[in-house]
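Bumping with the actual sequence this time:
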Amino acid sequence: MGNSSSASAKALLPLSTPVFHILLSLAEGDRHGYAIIKDIQARSDNEVQLSTSTLYGAIKRMMRDGLVEQSNMRPDPELDDERRRYYRITDFGRVVAQSEVQRINRLAEMVRETQFVERTP
């Protein structure tokens, strides 16, 4: 992806907590809404718990911004509910998530350079 993609990715930063966690969840593969909610809960040790309205509101905005798209991937029909919608991260969504990780890492580095955090010898 070129500079224009990188520049438009940075225009979306900082990401909200739900959007960042949804992108992290989808980075590992296509998921339906309930699976995204459960993955985020597990990944965050229950610190981040999204309601369905928060999840689907965020996904709607993320689809509009080109971060995620609906997926046609379907598991075995016996293991699936046909009403479920699956989502996947787009290439642009990956660029945005990586830009957010870089932003967070820079913030963490700034914190480490101050006396704000106790340093370990």
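The tokens above came from a reply further down the thread. The first strand starts at residue 31 and ends at 32.
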